Amino acid sequence: MAKSAASKPTKPTREQKKAARAAKKQQRRETWSSLRQAFTLTRREDNRFIPYLIIAGVIGAAVLYLITFGATHSVWIPIPLAVLGAVIAVMLTFSRRAQRMTYAKAEGTPGAGAWLLQNQLKGDWRKEEGIAGNAQMDMVHRLIGRPGIVLIGEGAPQRVRTLIAQEKKKIARIAGEVPIYDIVLGTAEGEVPLRKLNLHLHRLPRNLDKAAVADLEKRLQALGGRRMPVPHGPMPAGAKMRNVQRAARRRSAE
Predict the structure, then answer these.
(1) What is the Cα–Cα distance from 106 to 247, expressed in whole angstroms?
(2) How far apart are the first and last CA of the chain?
(3) Which helix (H) or strand (E) holds 142?
(4) Who contacts 125 (Cβ-Cβ below 8 Å, separation ≥6)?
(5) Less Cβ crowding at N or C end of the chain, within 10 Å?
(6) Could you give the strand order of the β-sheet that contains 126-133, starting from the edge strand earlier in sequence?
(7) DSSP code of 180?
(8) Which residues contact 183 (CB under 8 A, 6 or more apart)?
(9) pLDDT tens, per residue, the chain with 254 residues
(10) What's 192's DSSP letter?
(11) Strand pairing of 139-145 and 148-154?
């Protein structure tokens, strides 16, 4: 039986192909633009950036050259692989140093914790930013996952610990025997730096299965309540936070 015309996949038109090529080209431009900006910012903030790139490239090239030379006993065959090894080593070092610089600049700024949870959080977590806070932009965020409940506070440590204690008391009435962990972001003793938050969360014990996590999420939704206004990213020092603080004062007063 011949296939009907309706079942045949339609070929993209010339205009559609042209639009797709233009979209890919624009995407490549945006990617290279982002890489250039990251390179410029990291070089400006990190004095060791360029030396580390050079060292990483030399080591990567040398390692692959020696391995390939030992396998082939050829002087020329290992060269392309050595170049590839240098490129990979440089890109990995670039990524690590840029990430390190980003975390260093974000550390201690209002909204840094929320930014990390929105963009850098790893693992299967159900997150809720800004479940509590005050006019000074101290905030508490909540994660629900296999370890249980994790309350993450950012801001002045004393005020944040008070907010966390209040939320823990409120949540404990609904959570029952589910473990509740609390984390204060910062660099002082007993605090967790931004760059180590994912590792810290990964090391928590797995106390719940997926069904229990889903059930816990539904129960905690019953808490409701108003959420604090959360910045879309770390707010630089000296930034005008008047509108955000005004909204925070309104929410904390309600």
Answers:
(1) 22
(2) 70
(3) strand 139-145
(4) 143, 144, 145, 201
(5) N
(6) 126-133, 139-145, 148-154, 180-184
(7) E
(8) 150, 151, 152, 153, 192, 197, 200
(9) 444 555 556 777 888 878 888 888 888 888 888 888 888 988 988 899 999 999 999 999 999 999 999 999 999 999 999 999 999 999 999 999 998 888 888 888 888 888 889 888 998 999 999 999 888 889 999 999 999 999 999 999 999 999 999 999 999 989 889 999 999 999 999 999 999 999 999 999 999 999 999 999 998 887 765 566 666 556 554 444 444 444 444 544 45
(10) B
(11) antiparallel
**Token digits for 37?**
């900006």
Phi, then psi, of 133 in degrees rounded to 5: 180, -175
Sign of CA dihedral 2, 7, 9, 10: positive
Alpha-carbon distance of 125 to 147, in angstroms, equals 10
DSSP 8-class letter at 195 = G
Q: At what angle do helices 78-106 and 14-45 cross, to 10 degrees?
A: 70
Asked if residue 200 lies in contact with residue 194, where contact means CB atoms within 8 angstroms, the answer is no
d(CA 48, CA 42): 10
Report residue 38 as tokens.
Answer: 């990251």
Q: What pTM, to 2 d.p., does this model score?
A: 0.69
Q: Which two tokens stand for residue 86?
A: 């240098």
Query: Got the DSSP string for 46-107?
Result: -TTHHHHHHHHHHHHHHHHHHHHHHHH--SSTHHHHHHHHHHHHHHHHHHHHHHHHHHHHHT
**Where do we find the tokens 């030399």?**
58
Residues near 208 by Cβ (< 8 Å), separated by ≥ 6? 145, 146, 147, 148, 178, 216
